Amino acid sequence: MYPYHQYESVVLFFERAAEDPLVSHIKIVQYRVARKVAHHAGADAGGDAG
Questions:
Q1: Contacts of 49 (CB under 8 A, 6+ apart)
Q2: Residues near 46 by Cβ (< 8 Å), separated by ≥ 6?
Q3: 45 CB burial (10 A radius; 0-12, 13-18, 19+)
Q4: Taking Cα atoms as reference points, which of 20, 5, 11, 21 lies closest to residue 43?
Q5: Long-range CB pairs of 36-42, under 8 A, 24+ apart, other chains included
Q6: pLDDT averaged per 10 residues in sequence order, the chain, 50 residues
Q7: pTM, full prediction
Q8: How far apart, in whole angstroms, are the C-alpha atoms of residue 25 and residue 22?
Q9: Rounded to the nearest 5°, which phi and psi values hold at 32?
Q10: How far apart are CA 7 and CA 49, in angstroms?
Q11: Residue 27 in 3-state DSSP?
């Protein structure tokens, strides 16, 4: 029932990429975002990693 699928695999992808020193960029397209979106704590990890 899209768009209600689980997103654990996507979150895991970003968390691993944020910790990988060989990853310098991730390009994504964000669309259909609700007005009130829960912020994921791992979303800032990439910036914190350097």
A1: 18, 19
A2: 14, 17, 18, 26
A3: middle
A4: 11
A5: 40/11, 42/11, 42/14, 42/15, 42/18
A6: 74 93 90 66 56
A7: 0.50
A8: 9
A9: 50, 55
A10: 22
A11: coil
Residue type, 50: G
Say if CB 44 and CB 15 are below 8 A apart: no
> What tokens appear for 36 in the block?
């009130």
What the block records as the tokens of 20 is: 């990988």
Structure tokens at 17: 């990429």
